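It would be a great kindness if you could assist me with a short task in structural biology. Thank you for your consideration; the sequence and its tokens are set out here.
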Amino acid sequence: MGVRKREMADARKEANKSSYFAKLNNYPTSPRKMRLLADLIRNKPVEHALNVLRFHAQHASTPLSKLLVSAVKNYEAKTGLRAEDSNLFIKEIRVDEGAMLKRFRPAPQGRAYRIRKRSNHVTVVLDTKKEEQQ
């Protein structure tokens, strides 16, 4: 590894020490379905987001709530503070497209239909709200 790459990697590692995040890779549902849930909880407090996901009917709400709990545990491990005492909110949530399995299904008259089994990657970044005192 060259000097420039090593310096960039060290800078990225230092930035990750002060950010609180969790990642879910290759979850087998389409990114569109997961983005619908991600849009519901973006920029919301963590407690509110967990309640929304707990009572939502979509199947992908369970792994998304587990991911959010994992991000909270990462915050507690890095800072040593309790999550209930701090004002945690979801700063950023990204849903990216993962690997796609491509299959063919037989169709009438010798044709075939393409089936795309999609997956996605989800990244949740938490932050604390700073209380302004005047």
Summary: The domain at 22-128 is CATH 3.90.470.10 (Ribosomal Protein L22; Chain A). The chain has a mean pLDDT of 92. Helices lie at 3-17, 31-41, 46-54, 61-79.
